[in-house]
């Protein structure tokens, strides 16, 4: 949580799978974090010109998939440009 | 090693709504039995390559299912490695024969995908990736799009160069009556197709397909021109893309290819014809580099110049049309690749025949490169 990193690659997904149908299009990115590890997650709260390799980001906790029938809301890591 | 291929056949690939997995397998297997002159009783084991029967069809236990369907009395099992399931099933057949416990075995690859909604298929295909990838909504086009963007950034590979892979493979498929798409496509049509996961567009992506392929492997030979497997190598890499050091190469392909070339005592330059895993156009470009056919960063331009195309290239790549144009029934693909190379080396590839092909290679990948299987045939 709250780690900084840089975007290694990104894509805008236009065709979503089940569970993400109302979020499309959304951006998925791989970031290399300050602890040296690579991490995959959606990019949120971004401006179009921040969709770039090497853009600095920080990790945040956000809702991920649709809750589905069980109603338990899943949370996970996403990235926010800084 | 020397494992003989006694027969090899595929069904038509496509949206085959009227054909069940049993129908598909029966069709492919009856063709290999009749062309090899063998009977079900001669088959001592069956290895079934398949990924999605459980998640899409609710059916596990495919070994027993097809052993019953085909009247095979020996060992039977499913082999799974995502999109490399077919190649791994061939590897299992090779191991069975080299181990000496079985003399003649059947390898069959089958997938039934077109009965389901695209969103459902996309979700189940994500089973080939990692948990964080599923949580991020990273579909397979999304993962290969991440790879594509990294390759474009590092080597200047362009969208047009990627699109040309689809153009070439559709041209090859127009000569393949079993291909899903026998229509040629223009570069403009590919580049202007709708974006699936940027920068990959619809026509950069292999389709959803039904189909089956079958191969009979044996320690025994057959009369006439012999075609055999002289190398069978498997390697793995991290399940998830984020854990990789370099997105522009598939280490598993490099490792499996190195082992295979050593086993067969050949170099990339000796390969006349190759079936490589073009699940997305960028995947073929990277495969050309990882398999040692072109230097890193140089494959896209070489493909663009026709260096892998029927009539002008060496090696000629994806004469079947590849995954893109002949279709990608996931579990069947790795077996179909062996069928295509077998036909090329036997001289029975028809209109897509590579003249004088003597040595062939098949390259099958699982997930975003977590598994790679390379076979060399002579």
Tell me what you see in this structure:
The complex is a heterodimer of chains A (82) and B (378). By secondary structure, chain A is mainly beta. Chain A has one domain. Chain A is 0% helix and 48% strand. Chain A is built from no helices and five strands. Chain A has a five-stranded antiparallel beta sheet with strand order 3-2-1-4-5, with no helix packed on it. In chain A, strand 2 and strand 3 (38-43) form a beta hairpin. The radius of gyration of chain A is 13 Å and the shape is globular. With 378 residues, chain B is of the alpha/beta class. Chain B folds into two domains: 3-116 and 210-218, 3-Layer(aba) Sandwich (Peroxisomal Thiolase, Chain A, domain 1), CATH 3.40.47.10; 129-206 and 228-377, Peroxisomal Thiolase, Chain A, domain 1, CATH 3.40.47. Helices cover 38% and strands 18% of the residues of chain B. Chain B is built from 14 helices and twelve strands. In chain B, the strands form two sheets. In chain B, strands 3-2-4-7-1-8-12-11-9-10 form a ten-stranded mixed beta sheet, with helices on both faces. A two-stranded antiparallel ribbon of chain B has the order 5-6. In chain B, a hairpin with a 2-residue loop joins strand 5 and strand 6 (200-201). Chain A binds chain B through residues 8-21, 23, 26, 28-30, 38-42, 53, 64-65, 74, 76-78, and chain B through 118-120, 122-123, 126, 130, 132-133, 135-139, 141-142, 145-147, 149-150, 153, 194-200, 240-244, 247.
